[in-house]
Write a structure and sequence with these properties.
binds adenosine-5'-triphosphate; binds magnesium ion; 6 strands; 120 residues; four-stranded antiparallel sheet
């Protein structure tokens, strides 16, 4: 069984559409997208609300989870870096994990073939 890797990309919601398209373009076959709240090193930021300064700890972000075996991990990471980088704080984070197993429920297939395109 070939190595399977999970990549989580947590980034600005406004980058979702472009990232989705860029991942499709490098033949990523599936993804899970969740609206999340998070903070990084800055622990949120300060916004002015009705003349008052309000400290917002958790900012809305989007999490894109991708599991790959054929598509190189580097290619996914590089794509996310290219699309999501504005250079300002809060561009997001990428987390990479080894994945123990994957199962395609319909067929019972496990491991790398569970996430491979049957046509390829
Ligand atoms: N240590 C962490 N553990 C879990 N999630 C994290 C961690 N750091 C960041 N995140 C997630 O990543 C999102 C984006 O973080 P962010 O880009 O602000 O990171 P940062 O380390 O503060 O970098 P920057 O200086 O570019 O802002 C957060 O909203 C949070 O969801
Ligand atoms: Mg930050």
């Amino acid at each position: 069984m070939r190595k399977i890797t999970k990549i989580d990309i947590i980034t600005r919601p406004e980058k979702l559409e472009e990232l989705k398209e860029a991942l499709n373009a490098i033949a990523v076959t599936g993804m899970t997208v969740t609206q999340v709240f998070g903070c990084g090193l800055q622990k949120g930021h300060t916004e002015v609300y009705r003349g008052q300064e309000v400290h917002v700890t958790l900012l809305p972000m989007v999490k894109i989870e991708v599991v790959v075996c054929e598509v190189p991990v580097e290619k996914v990471v590089d794509t996310a870096k290219r699309v999501c980088r504005t250079g300002k704080v809060g561009d997001g984070k990428i987390f990479v994990y080894p994945l123990e197993n994957a199962v395609r429920i319909r067929t019972g297939e496990e491991g790398d073939i569970a996430i491979m395109d049957p046509k390829s």
